[in-house]
Amino acid sequence: MDQNKPDLRQQKFIRMTTAPVQGLVLRLAVPTIASMLVTALYNVADTYFVSSIGGYAGTCAIAAVSVSLSVMALIQALGFFVGQGASNFISRALGRHDVDKAAEMAATGLVLALTLGALVTLLGELFTAPIARFLGADEEFVKPTVDYLRWILAAAPLMTGSFCLNNQLRFQGNAFYAMIGVVSGAVLNVGLDPLFIHTLGMGAQGASLATAVSQSVGFCVLLAGTFRGDNLRISFRRVRISLENLGYIVQGGLPSLLRQGCGAVAVMVLNRTAGDVGAMDPEIGRATLIAAFGLVSKTMMLVNNVVIGLGQGYQPVCGFNYGAGQYSRVRAAFWFLVKTVACWCLLVIVLGELLAPRVVGLFPDAQPKVKELGAVILRFQCATFFVNCWVVPSNMTQQTMGWMVSASTLAMARQGLFLVPLVLLLPRLFGLTGLELAQPASDVLTLCLAIPLQIRVLRHLSQGDKPLE
Question: How far apart, in Å, do the first and last CA atoms of the chain sit?
Fold first, then answer.
């Protein structure tokens, strides 16, 4: 059987460049949204099950998981950097019928992702305790933080590899295979959490071991998925580490690296600042405020992943059609995505403002003060959730098209250019309220930046379509 499946790929090219874009986006988005939601659910599961430890020990465990989010974000940043970089090129190459170059980039991207993950493991295992303290863990909960980080760092290579493969499968228009890999790991994680945390009495360390095992299984399933259907087969004989290929990866992946990297820095700064603000109030305390922000972060991850899932369903449509010169279809898909995300944002705002106490109440054994603070923080963050209907589609369009400078600028804006300075400044002026206002203020400033950047892109897409080959 021909390895490259030319007939199947030609059929896919015709479908991606001629079928109605609304149906294409939704068809690709549904399995991606399922993957993203399940991923968020098993991230929330760690917090849920460690919160069930109960009492102050449970609060310290939640704080440990929250502090460790920066390391998880860094691992994801590296995986998405390579995965999005290689995959954006792959979708455009398939749009140009350049299958050989696409297959070369797929193999090269996976090897690079595994290598970067191995470097994280090496450095992280050597300096786990200093890293935990640097991220904001003090003596109250530094031990559960170190325990949690150990297994996460050990699994870093397969985690970066999983993020890379997931992106490659999606950008080839095969989101179903990507979903199977993610869901299999997620279901396993939810099952292992109570076993390791409670039955085996491993506490926070059990939560991270469950994540490490499930991510490893997910990687194996995703790798097997590359050998199914018309997907590009991963062949290590095709690996070519060259300046040209690295340049393509940087061009397409730098926005993701900056977005995720700034997110990791923002989480670290937020946790350290929240600890300082909480320590100044004897009724709150360092670990309690960090835990409250952690609960909200995990909750917002759920609703935000729907937005990301819709956008990731749009990216292959954008990449194929931009590579084929079908600019009118890219514009049509973009506006459909904006309208769809706007509907979701409106629903989140209404439900978030009305039901915030009930939402944080889903973590039943979290201390009452953690829930009280979490409800207020959640309302603040829901208030400006509407910016996603423009910011996310704009950033994904620019990145998929290879507009590195504007995509990178917008990727850094929310968490890096705006949130970090605001987190450092506003609490000095307004205390806890200033810290709660930092994320909404960052959202509004990001929207103001995204509007002119994307208008420039839309003007570029207004030129006429090229004839299909």
Answer: 26
